[in-house]
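Team,

Forwarding the record for the chain on the shared tracking sheet. I've put the sequence and predicted structure together so nobody has to dig through attachments.
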Amino acid sequence: MTGRTDARRALGVRRVREARGAAAGAPAVWSRDFALFFVARAVARLGDTMLPVALAAGLLEHGYGAGAVGLAMAATAAAFAGLVVFGGVVADRFSTRRLMIGADLVRLVTQSLAAGLFFAGHVVLWQICAVGIVNGVAGAVFQPGVAGTVPRLAADVQGANGAIRIAESAAQLAGPAVAGVLVGLASAGGVLAAHAATYALSALCLLLLRLPPLPAGPRAATGSALRAFRADLADGWREFRSRAWLWGVIAVWCLYMIAVWGPTVPLVATEVVRQHGPGAYGLVNSALGAGTVIGGLLALRLRPRRMLRAGALSLFAFFGFPAAVGAGLGVPAMAAGAALAGAGMSFWGVMWATTVQTQVPPDVLNRIHAYDVAGSLAMLPVGQALAGPAAGALGTGRVLLTAATVSLLVAVILLAIPAIRDLVRAEPAAPAHAGPTAPAR
């Protein structure tokens, strides 16, 4: 059994190197195709950060309360989290580029429909939730293909991930501000129309994108489509659980989501607004976004041999964010803590994404990424749901200080697991002569 496992891993490493062979002869990061993918990701992130502002402003304007806003947002999140694993199977079996284009076009239609409802003044909550569910399903089909696309576009996978992280962080800073301006000028319908336009631009960029062909991997024996789908799903799970560093990080991240990130986001917002006003919260949130840009820039320059070890060390920086708010420090201290937290989280994100994309065989990468996304998100609503009752029982300050302490514990646990701490980065194969590019699968 050990010999079979070793053979599978050796074959997986060889496929990773083969998959990168076509990209190795291209520029390390920047090329025409990577620029198209970069723009697609940046504008999509910009639109996604505009959406909460549009839903909140539009639903409140039409007489709905905060609960309705949360329900509309939860509809998308639930559909996405529930189906993303199946989306990974689909992405590994069919053309990822076509699936992503199709998902963007579906969301172009749904968001245009939602904009029309707000423009017409005919806003019914179940219709908005239905739009959200369709968007979540489309996102579950789209997201798994992202991980497999990056290593096929650039020889320097870490640099590519760093550049995308910086663009997404900048979009996250700009999105709410742009949405606020559009709400004032053209109502919530105008923001939703702009959001729909971002999907159109993303689809256009992906339509123009060309990638080297992906090496074919072993497939389940042909048979019924349902049997093949189940076989692919089971194979993805076997690949996932065979890597201790992978499932180890996801298991630890469940604790992080429940006890750290889940309660930190809503409780920081509540506490800062209550004590210092919405302007102070905007400043703290901007500092968090600026920190993520700094973390992305650091990830472009630093090339640690043990990437997950370096990423885990960067997570210690998160402590200052919930601790400063929980301790009742002033706005400058909270903003400084937020900036450090953003930098640490962003650096970890690049190290983690690059590790997954370079250590996992390309023929199962989309499925593995789907398990990663599903596992990472599964406990987030649990942490958010528990934040309110915990704050009511213990006090907001104590819950945030506990979250800060657990954030340190999470980093220590990651460093204490040898499979995570000692994993050596996968180096790309020697540059090969790239043949003519072909349309992406």
